[in-house]
């Protein structure tokens, strides 16, 4: 396991092996001198970025994973043969961290950016009561019309994806140009050897389109607490569908923040003053729910401990509701 110190943050990375025998890159950022107040699990979009450092500085233990075919993980770069496998890899890794003895009583939050927003919603669907909340950053609930091929082209590509799944022939605009407002950030992404560039591979495009259609049809199933942050000028994922998620979800605790003039990459591609605004809103949301839910959970656990002690002293069976 490789590790380094980033100021007051301890950063570690290691490779794990998934059930299909692929090596997946994982990493974590944790406060070096204090116990994390809660756990945050990042489901990335184009890449793992500085979100981990920002949240760790605010006192959270933050964990990330590169999907198959992304970043430093094994697999053909930019190739997603099965979105279900991708979700299962995240679920297995994140759950294993949550179930460690030192983490069992910690709150657990998911954070998904872009495609990672779709991953978060499917992780929630897989275990509806497991996660304490979600932060959705420009989530892929629907692919914006500006970057989606025409319907006839989609039909043709659906057939071809079964014949030549890895080919890069999905006709779409360069997402980097649409996602990152700051030119310097675009160049940084393009020069990163671990970041996929070019047209989407056929099977990848097919999987992303199907997942976005499925999520769009089932927004009402979302029941966990969440905050959505979305740029008003996002041309990669559709902010109107984020609004629909906010309005349709059955969650009783839900927040929607729309930032006029901001683009898709809210946490890395905007001017620093805009990025600060977005992280301020995310941190405020996390802080409020962490303090409230930690207090509630502690009360429940203390009540449970007291009930157990009382039952042992009296010999009576106590059922705590």
TrEMBL record:
It comes from the Eukaryota. Residues 35-267 form the Serine aminopeptidase S33 domain. Keywords: Hydrolase. Coiled coil: none annotated. The keyword Hydrolase applies. It holds the Pfam family Hydrolase_4. One of its GO terms (molecular function) is hydrolase activity. InterPro entries: AB_hydrolase_1, AB_hydrolase_fold, Hydrolase_4, MAG_DAG_Lipase. PANTHER family: PHOSPHOLIPASE-RELATED. This is Alpha/beta hydrolase fold-1.
């Amino acid at each position: 396991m490789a590790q380094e110190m980033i100021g007051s943050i301890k950063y570690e990375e290691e490779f794990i092996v998934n059930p299909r025998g692929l090596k997946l890159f994982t990493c974590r950022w944790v406060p070096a001198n204090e116990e994390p107040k809660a756990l945050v699990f990042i489901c990335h979009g184009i890449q793992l970025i500085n979100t981990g450092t920002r949240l760790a500085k605010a006192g959270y233990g933050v964990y990330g994973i590169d999907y198959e075919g992304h970043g430093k993980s094994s697999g053909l770069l930019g190739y997603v043969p099965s979105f279900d496998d991708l979700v299962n890899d995240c679920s297995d890794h994140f759950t294993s961290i949550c179930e460690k003895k030192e983490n069992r009583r910690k709150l657990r939050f998911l954070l998904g950016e872009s495609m990672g927003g779709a991953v978060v919603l499917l992780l929630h669907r897989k275990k509806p009561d497991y996660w304490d909340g979600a932060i959705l950053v420009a989530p892929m609930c629907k692919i914006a019309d500006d970057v989606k091929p025409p319907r006839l082209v989609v039909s043709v590509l659906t057939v071809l994806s079964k014949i030549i799944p890895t080919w890069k022939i999905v006709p779409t605009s360069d997402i980097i140009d649409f996602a990152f407002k700051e030119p310097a950030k675009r160049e940084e992404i393009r020069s990163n050897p671990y970041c996929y560039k070019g047209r989407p591979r056929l099977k990848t495009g097919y999987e992303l389109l199907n997942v976005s259609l499925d999520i769009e049809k089932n927004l009402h199933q979302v029941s966990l607490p969440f905050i959505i942050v979305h740029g008003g000028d996002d041309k990669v994922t559709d902010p109107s569908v984020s609004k629909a998620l906010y309005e349709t979800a059955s969650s009783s605790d839900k927040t929607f923040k729309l930032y006029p003039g901001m683009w898709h990459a809210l946490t890395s591609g905007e001017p620093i003053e805009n990025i600060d605004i977005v992280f301020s809103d995310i941190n405020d949301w996390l802080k409020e729910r962490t303090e409230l839910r930690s207090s509630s959970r502690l009360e429940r656990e203390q009540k449970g401990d007291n009930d157990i002690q009382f039952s042992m002293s009296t010999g009576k069976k106590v059922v705590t509701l």
